Amino acid sequence: MKLTALRLHNVKRFAGRGISVEGITDGVNVLSAANEHGKSTCFEALHALFFQPHSGNPKSVQMLRPYSGGNPIVEADITIEAGRYRLTKQFHSGRRASVTDLGSGRIVAQADEAEAFIGDLISGGTSGPAGLLWVRQGVTGIENRSKSEEENDKRVRESLLSSVQGEVEALTGGRRMSAVLEACEDELNRLVTATLRPKAGGRFAAALEERDRLQEEEARLAKEVEMLHGALDRRRSVQARLSELENPDEEAGRKTAIANAEVVLEAAKLHDRELKALDAEATLAASRRDEAQQVFDRFHTALNRSGELARRFALAEKELSSAAKRRTASLAESEAATAEVQAAEEEERIDRQLLARLEAALRSRHAAERLAEVRLRLEQAEAARQQIEDGEAAHALLAIPADAVERLEALDLKIVGLRAAAEVGLPTLRVDYLKDASGSVSMDRQPLIGGEDRSFAGIAKLDITGVGTLTIHSSRQADQDGALETAEATRQTLLAKLGVDSLRAARQRDIAARNKQEELVRARQRLADLAPNGIDKLHLDAARFAELSQDPVELEADPEEVRARLADATRRIELSRNRAREASVMRTEAGEAILRAQTEHTRLGQELEAIEAVIGPEAGRTELQQDLALKLSRAKEQVDAVELRAEPLRRTGRDLAGAEAALARARSVADAAGREIARLREELADLGGQIRTRSDGAVEENWLESRDLLAAAREQVKRFETEVGVLDRLRKALTATRAAARDLYLKPVMNELAPLLGLLFDDISITFDGDTLLPQIVRRNGLDEDVDRLSGGMREQLSVLTRLAFARLLARDGRPAPVILDDALVYSDDDRIERMFDALHRQSRDQQILVFSCRQRAFAKLGGNVLTMQPWQPD
């Protein structure tokens, strides 16, 4: 590969302008200028062109950007065996990369394909061989550097020497083996320490921690499951005892005993008490039946609604998919139209240049014709700029934070959940008024409506007209932590901050802001089309054309044929631009369609999630429906059973008579049974609370899930252990193989370096480290010197000569590359620098050398092709 030209625009000190270095030839090329004239800028720009991807933004790319901003553009012409090409990259905004065949003018690669083309030229980036052929200002590659930089240099030089030997494709040496070994070590370092112990913060250590955590979680859940089973067993025994105590036969026996003591009186009292108890039981059973009926009805209503929502949700998904396809098609059509515009504009530019050469005498007339066009575009550009300023002001008023709508939706869901949680489990009361009742009952100064359930928490005071006040105490407190009030206050604060009164208004405002943003994008694009170089440039063009149009010019020839071709090219540009505008409108409409589809899809999804929260997962809906139906049936059966027991008592009556002594004894027996029943009921309530708490928490399901997760975690740990063993074994095998092949690397480098050292030094030899392949000891006049004790001039000369030797190896390997030096000889004396010039000219017979230097007087003796920087503007 050989360079023939370098161009850069808006790079570092060349803000808003560009320069070009043309006429780079074979052999030695010298660009010599004073400091701060842009030589190092040219070097850094050329380095970024070859080694930095256009899509990235690392620090080295950021340093190219001038303080005033803008998009750096770097362009180089090269010659390779396949032909002559132009490499172009633009960084930051408007990122692009392209490769153009200079022979045909055709673009052969763009974007990632262009990066791959350049990567093939440099054989692996800065970590490949080409990276060593660059010598930057003040960097020799031998001076003391950080540990990470030294390790990187070692890997780079090993990679170079391996590639020179032609061992690229063998795993016993070369870049592939080095890359595999480095990847193996990197993967091991992510998992374990140097002693093969799990590395803190790594995936292996995280897997071990997850396994230990799951073991503790599984043990805790197993204990809770055991406690749940114990509570269920105790509840069954308590229910059996209660059933025994509440058996009608037992109660009849106690009543018979009371009747034997005081037959008439106690029988009548027992009759009255039993009837009241059965009435209360009937009321409770009816309440449970109504509650079960309401739950059953709500389930069926939600189930019926879910089908319709699922159908609409599926339609919304199809519409969203269709909108996405339309947007993809419109984007492809827009890109094709843009490419057509660019091609047409390129043809028009070529014709215009030809017309300028043929009709130099028509410039004044052409200026007069262009004056009206420029003034029209200037008026349109001014109008577009005013539209942009107005749109930006309107957008600033409409814009809201990106996550504001999502936060409002989350708060609404949270408030609904808190309200529902606050009402669950609260005690309720209900009043059924008589038809001819004259009074009423009120709670907290609000009349209670007959037949409606009313929940309360804490203390409830019932005002009964004509009777008094009934105070009821509840152990349940509503929303003691104030979470509901906090959530509502947060929501109201957020709405006030956004300047809206509801979630719907926030969504509408967000959509309006997006629409305004799209209008701004179109207006900016229109301004860019009308004034690609700015409105000030249009003003300058108008003034220039006005001045040129005042000068009369005699026409020496008739350029009608060229003008016709130019007019045809202009018409094609207009047609292609119209198609591009049409494609842009289609793209905008497709974007709006997908926004509407996404909004409808999200709304239906949220509503469907709310319905599914009621009816549960689809797999368990049948079981849930059967369970609700069974509960309703049991509640109805319980009501019928109570009514069946109460009906005989309502038909019969008892006389109030009996004996006091027998009554006292019978009551003592009944009281004892009642106390035991009460105690058992309290215990049953406690057990029910414990069971509900653990059942609501899905303890058994969580326990089973934790067992599965624990098994998976153990399997993951086992896989990591296997992976570490395999990687360690692979690393040992690769290290042993590379050590065996190391002797192949040193001899070719020394063979190429020896004649260069003889040319520069009278009596000198270099000893390389057998492990790192880096210069270690220099033998001069029979004395050994460490490399780090050499003078700065000696070290930089060794660095340059080593690159020249490496370049010769690359050329012999069939991959010639230019050697680029940026002020690399700053410490050398006059005699030694002239010898270095001889070495450069000797090596330049077979390759290209490009030298940047600020030492104008010293490098005047170097000779070679003298380069200069000229102003340049990109097309």
TrEMBL record:
What domain of life?
A: Bacteria
The alphabetical list of record keywords is: Coiled coil, DNA-binding, Plasmid
Domain YhaN AAA residues, every copy: 1-52
Question: What Gene Ontology molecular-function terms does this entry list?
Answer: DNA binding
Q: Give the coiled coil ranges.
A: 204-231, 327-391, 625-690
Pfam families the record matches: AAA_27
Annotated protein name in UniProt:
AAA family ATPase
Species: Rhizobium leguminosarum
The organism that produces this protein has a lineage beginning with: Bacteria, Pseudomonadati, Pseudomonadota, Alphaproteobacteria, Hyphomicrobiales
